[in-house]
Amino acid sequence: MRPEILTILKENPTILLLCVSTALLTSGQGMVAPILPLYADSLGVSVATVGLVISAFGLARFMTNIPTAILAQKFGRRLPLVVGPFIAAIGNGMAGVVDSLTYLIIFRFVAGIGSAAFITGAIIFIGDITTPANRGRMMSVYQGSFILGISFGPVLGGLIAEAFGLRAPFFAVAGLSVLSGIWAIFKVPETRPPQE
Fold first, then answer.
1. For the segment 63-77, what is each residue's pLDDT rounded down to a tens digit?
2. First and final CA of the chain: distance in angstroms?
3. Model's pTM, two decimal places?
4. Do residues 142 and 118 lie in contact, with contact meaning Cβ atoms separated by under 8 Å?
5. Which of 28, 157, 131, 128 is nearest to 88 (CA)?
6. What is d(CA 37, CA 39) in angstroms, rounded to the nearest whole number?
7. Which backbone phi and psi does 99 adopt, to 5 degrees?
8. Is the dihedral of CA 30, 97, 114, 181 positive or negative?
């Protein structure tokens, strides 16, 4: 009996194109998770202040979701799927070179904007390519790629930080984000219905 995942991918192989981009982006997001408190501490901030650094990313995602959905509705799904990873790359790359808490918070916020743009665009993309009959199965494949990236990211981030220092994972994240954006440019199709 053929595994269920192969059946789903055969039903709509476009989902796989999105999943590759998602796994690249989310593995990058996971990379900084184990080192972020240590990195913030190296800048001389208190443990309580480290929470601000972590919260900045989540706050940006919260504030970006609705504007991204509006832009995707008006200009197409590829916009957030392509631009989001590049914004995340800028935020993460700059977070790796800052020397103050203020700038670290700002650039983590920027990275959160890029992440939110991509994830919101991806969910709309899945809504476009699915039907009520297969949406749950397709969403589970997408969620699997998301979780796969987030799960492997911390291991890679810890190894990179151990070998190259606390700033290195931020540069690796930026690189993976750029790869995600490039993949979206060349492989992920536009799914916005013509009537919109």
1. 999 999 999 999 999
2. 41
3. 0.91
4. no
5. 28
6. 5
7. -125, 15
8. negative
